[in-house]
Design brief:
Layout (H helix, E strand, L loop, with lengths): L1 E6 L4 E4 L4 E4 L3 E8 L2 E5 L1 H6 L11 H13 L2 E4 L10 E4 L1 H6 L6 H6 L2 E2 L4 E7 L9 E7 L2 E15 L2 E9 H8 L4 E11 L3 E12 L8 E11 L3 E6 L4 E2 L14 E2 L2 E3 L2 H8 L26 E3 L1 H9 L3 H5 L1 E2 L5 H7 L6 E2 L9 E3 L10 E2 L1 H13 L7 E9 L5 H17 L10 E7 H11 L11 E9 L4 E9 L5 H9 L5 E10 L3 H15 L1 H6 L25 H19 L7
Parallel strand pairs: 3-6, 8-14, 15-25, 23-24, 25-26
Antiparallel strand pairs: 1-2, 1-4, 2-14, 4-5, 7-9, 9-12, 10-11, 10-13, 11-12, 13-14, 15-16, 16-17, 16-18, 19-20, 19-21, 22-23, 27-28, 28-29
């Protein structure tokens, strides 16, 4: 037998040993359970009628409870703890820890809910006003149906320098219980034991099957990704809405996400990334400088954080942990099969980690950074709090990348994007190279009204030069009004074209902003080669540049130190010359 007390706020106390029953000022009712039968009783009324035999003849529940009182010698105890003082709140901190995105509040968890099949979620338990340790947390009911108790592991974790208690929630197991139901409300308790009783703090979370729940799966909406050498832009809603890699975008650069990663703790990243389920590792805070990061607490960062570290942090261990030129990796591997690119993480698990453009080659000393970056794009776009999941992705492509290079990028990004969404929708994901980069730029200009046919003219010739970080792509053509030819007119009218874009030619060159920056850095080194030789400073010879004649060739090597020195010159001197600073407002 057990007795449950429930107050107006929904907090429940379960009595294990029925010697004394605590009375609370605001208790309205209790549940007295005998086997499978539950009786609803007013325990304050029982206490007031303890000696009144007629009162206990009113119902079977009262008679059974009187019998229990006589057998167990139960008495009622007044307590000074008013349950209304107890504040129990819970929030989802998964995306806060993984990506420094906002916590998902309790109100959203109980109304909008969480997706099933989305791996581990971490629920922060705030037990302000309560003493003692949590003994367990579990779900026991879905909607009106009792279920086999689904336990959650209780852990103490540190997130952003704060030690908190979290319940580890496996949404894959929740999905097995939800089955083919689009949604379901799961009811559970967090148990906090006391000397003679325990608090059962109620937890209600709504769960959704993202494939079946209305409004979640954006099946007809395409995501446009401009995967660049220096930066990457992501847009939805036909280009109207740009996606930042931060919860608090402050300017354009928060939407122009640097295509770069920094790995602090490779052991944790690899351990999570190599599994089949949704990966979890910890993004460092924006206000923590990379050289002071504790890799036990923070595992990685990317985007504008890396851009800022490259600009202001010249410490060798920081630069060696950064991965740049991710987009050009397939091209480099094809052109230099014996030159394996690598990075050095902070942790001692692996002193050197190599880079590959194939997921199949990944292991504890090899990473596919394109796939990992695709995963970060997916997690930033398909945020749980937004409650929208996209499965169609269109990539822009450089004109001169060959089919193998395009396929490597497409396959790698698709792998990462799939891993960033719930299991049930992964087979629905499509990632395709569809538009050449200068043509995509042309479409963007038309979209925002910058491409217009002058008044009195029938057509506008155009030339697009897209000078990116790694390539120079261009397109020539004409922007005109619908044709007068009857056959063409019918076709154009059927498609309701108000104007026509004709592309005459596209082409590209393997030269970009990063190429010029490195060339300038190398020229600075070459012009000061005598001092460099005296100081024994090595440098990496950039792609397309020749070694310095009559110079110590042992200083022109491809090592981490030589790469670091080239990178330092890039950021300290060369890049500021090419990058025009924004005017002050």
């Amino acid at each position: 037998m057990k007795v449950l007390f429930r107050n107006r706020g929904g907090v429940i106390v379960e009595v294990d040993k029925l010697k004394r029953i605590p009375l609370f000022e605001d208790i309205e009712e209790g549940e007295f359970i005998v086997g499978d039968q539950t009786y609803r009783l007013n325990f304050r009324e029982i206490a007031e009628n303890e000696g009144n035999k007629d009162y206990f003849e009113k119902s079977e529940g009262l008679r059974l409870f009187q019998q229990l009182m006589e057998e167990e010698d139960i008495s009622f105890e007044e307590t000074g703890k008013n349950l209304e003082e107890i504040q129990f709140e819970f929030t989802d901190v998964t995306d806060l820890q993984f990506n420094q995105f906002q916590e998902i509040p309790q109100s959203v968890l109980s109304t909008q809910g969480l997706w099933v099949g989305n791996g581990i979620r971490k629920i922060k338990l705030n037990l302000e006003g309560l003493e003692g340790d949590i003994s367990s947390a579990y779900f026991y009911k879905m909607d009106n149906r009792e279920i086999e108790p689904l336990p959650m592991e209780i852990r103490e974790e540190e997130i952003n320098e704060e030690k908190i208690k979290v319940a580890i929630l496996d949404t894959d197991k929740v999905g097995e219980i939800l089955g083919e139901n689009p949604t379901g409300n799961f009811y559970g308790f967090v148990e906090l034991p006391k000397k003679r009783w325990k608090f059962l703090l109620p937890m209600v979370i709504k769960f959704l099957n993202p494939e079946l729940a209305p409004g979640v799966w954006q099946r007809n909406e395409s995501v446009a990704i401009d995967f660049g050498t220096s930066s990457t832009c992501v847009a939805v809603n036909r280009g109207k809405d740009l996606i930042p890699f931060t919860d608090h975008p402050k300017g354009d650069e928060d939407y122009e996400n640097a295509t770069a990663l920094i790995i602090f703790n490779w052991e944790e990243v690899f351990k999570n990334w190599s599994g089949k389920k949704t990966s979890h590792f910890n993004r460092s805070r924006e206000d923590v400088e990379a050289n002071s990061v504790d890799y036990h607490k923070y595992h990685y960062n990317y985007s504008s954080y890396v851009k800022r570290q490259l600009k202001h942090n010249s410490e060798a261990k920081v630069i060696e942990a950064i991965i740049t030129k991710i987009k050009l990796l397939p091209q480099h591997i094809e052109n230099h099969p014996n030159d394996r690119l690598s990075f050095k993480p902070f942790d001692p698990f692996r002193s050197l980690v190599y880079l590959t453009d194939q997921v199949e080659e990944e292991n504890d000393e090899t990473l596919n950074p394109i796939a990992l970056y695709g995963y970060l794009i997916s997690r930033a776009l398909n945020k749980q709090i937004n409650n929208k999941i996209y499965t169609r992705y269109v990539l822009t492509m450089p004109v001169n990348f060959n089919e193998r290079q395009k396929q490597r990028i497409q396959d790698s990004l698709e792998y990462g994007i799939k891993k960033g969404i719930p299991q049930v929708l992964r087979d629905k994901v499509e990632v395709k190279f569809k538009i050449e980069e200068p043509v995509a730029l042309l479409g963007a200009l038309k979209r925002i009204g910058k491409l217009k046919i002058p008044k009195g003219k029938k057509a506008l010739p155009f030339a697009i030069f897209d000078f990116g970080g790694g390539t120079l792509d261009f397109a020539f053509g004409i922007y005109r009004k619908p044709a007068r030819n009857k056959e063409l007119q019918v076709l154009e009218k059927e498609n309701r074209y108000s104007s026509i874009v004709e592309i005459f030619r596209t082409d590209g060159k393997n030269i970009g902003g990063e190429t010029l920056i490195e060339a300038l850095s190398y020229k600075i080194y070459r012009d000061n080669s005598q001092q460099m030789a005296q100081l024994n400073i090595p440098i990496k010879v950039p792609e397309g540049e020749r070694p310095i004649p009559d110079f110590n060739q042992r200083l022109l090597v491809n090592t981490h130190l030589s790469h670091t020195n080239l990178q330092k010159l890039n950021e300290a001197i060369s890049r500021p010359i090419f990058v025009t600073p924004k005017p002050k407002e």
